Protein: FAD-binding domain-containing protein
Amino acid sequence: MLSTFLIAIYSLLVVLTVKSRREVMDSINQELYGASPDIKVSASSKRLIQVLQKVLASCIILPSDTDAFNASASNYFAQQSNTTRPACIVRPETVEQLSQAVAILHQEFLARRADGRDKPNNLGFVSLRSGGHSYSGASASIEGGVLLDLSRFSEVTVSNDGTLVTIGTGARWSRVNQVLEAKKIAVPGGRNGAVGVGGFTLGGGISFFSQRYGLACSNVIEYQVVLASGDVVIASATSNTKLWRALKGGANNFGIVTRFTFRAFPCGDIWGGCLFSPSFESSRSIDAFHAFVDRADPKKPDVEYDDYASGPLVCFCYLQRPGVEIISTFITYTKEPPSGSDWPACWKKSGFKSLWRYWSTVKQRTLSSACQDLAVGEKAGLSQTVAGTIVKNDKATLDAAYAFYREACVEVKKVKGKGIRFVFVLQPLLPAWMHKGDPNYLGLENTMTEPHVLISFSPVWIDVNHNEFVEDLIRRTVGKIERFARERGTYHPYKYVNYCAAWQDPFEGHGEENLEILRGVSREYDAEGFFQRACPGGFKIPGLEEGS
Ligand SMILES: Cc1cc2nc3c(=O)[nH]c(=O)nc-3n(C[C@H](O)[C@H](O)[C@H](O)COP(=O)(O)OP(=O)(O)OC[C@H]3O[C@@H](n4cnc5c(N)ncnc54)[C@H](O)[C@@H]3O)c2cc1C
Structure:
């Protein structure tokens, strides 16, 4: 009898305790996430958000602030990222606020690691985003974690003499170009105005000016960086020099860059645009591409290569709905050609001049206008991905790559639904780029001694049910190209981080010596591996995994 009574009392207490605990959690949920929370947030993340709110109230956006939250959480280029929901967004306005946020997140990381609240391989709860234009789904987004939205760091400041430009990481290239055009200067920025300064520059940065000035990162004389500890440092040729070099292509592995100081150069109008050709010109397009790029071979000193030429970017685009291929070739000349809107000599004598075309947009224009033109057809919010590989500018390899792409198009054609745009792009990667500007740890000065080609696939599709099919298809197709190139001796192990799929390793081609330096920089500036583990998006340096 007594035992029955005690069990009844105990059950009542349990029910009350559970109920009151649930009520408390519900009220926290209500406050943080609004009426119907559908975001899975761990208890530790909820506590973390309360701390962030206490310290940085003006920078925090919670799901309960529906409009602001959705506007930021859906501000990505790729649909895959737009549907990922963080538990909380931190959008700092000042470096001090960002520094405080990082210090709190770092403490949380250490606490989670120490008390084993999360498994060692599951510590990732932070993502960083500048322009949100990474192709790979989870590069800059995180489900149920904290998104650091860097969009407020968007200043563009030109030095008095016009030789230096300081740009906030959250600026987009369209605005940068507009500010600089008014002063008749430029920096080697993105060729698509919507792309963010941060991710583009930290990945390396291929611009219209690569042949004249090298990669974008090779023109950054100074970075302001928030380290894992929350400390703010300057990395330049005279201060934190190894960090300065490591940030050139090192992506988000070492710290959060708030601003970049670029060397600028005079720039007026340029010439360029797009040639749209039908599929029957594919073979002649590849011939023209190969011959043009071949001219940049330093081992052929008798062949003159005009450093103002940029491109060609040849995009073969298979449209599943009508079942046709269109070739769009973007060619540029980075100064006003002597004869106005007429084709500059280097392009006039190229094979592109005689391609049959539906229409052409080439003309004298501003840099902004060229960037807008290149962005035509790019639409944010659709499913997107990218995968790239690098080969020597070898005609047989390019022909084989095109043939593999066509095989893939046959598979695309058979898929139910008609919303896939399967895009295969050829663009040069030239030896001169690797020797211009400041040094880095990419390891390309000695291995890219002849013209190479960056082959990439950047498919776009509407139906999310096709995600797996498309990802698998480009993986298999890149695999075929790489097997062919390896056998022919034309494969290059470097992968351009900005055109890498999640399953690729952009650090493979750096060489062990450079990789060891990068590991050392990471250990020096981020001893506990915050950027390696707490911030899982993007590409991490191999050999720095937990316990290694
Ligand atoms: C339509 C389109 C056109 C493109 N054109 C070009 C081109 O012409 N040339 C070229 O080289 N690339 C090009 N790219 C690739 C582009 O450079 C990369 O996708 C780049 O990462 C985008 O930068 P973001 O700031 O917009 O991206 P985000 O998605 O915001 O960031 C990309 C990565 O960088 C990290 N990151 C961002 N900011 C910081 C920071 N301040 N500190 C530390 N880590 C940070 C993020 O965590 C993420 O992993 C293009 C991409 C698209 C979608």
Notes: Residues 38-149 form a domain with the Uridine Diphospho-n-acetylenolpyruvylglucosamine Reductase; domain 2 fold (CATH 3.30.43.10). The mean pLDDT is 91.
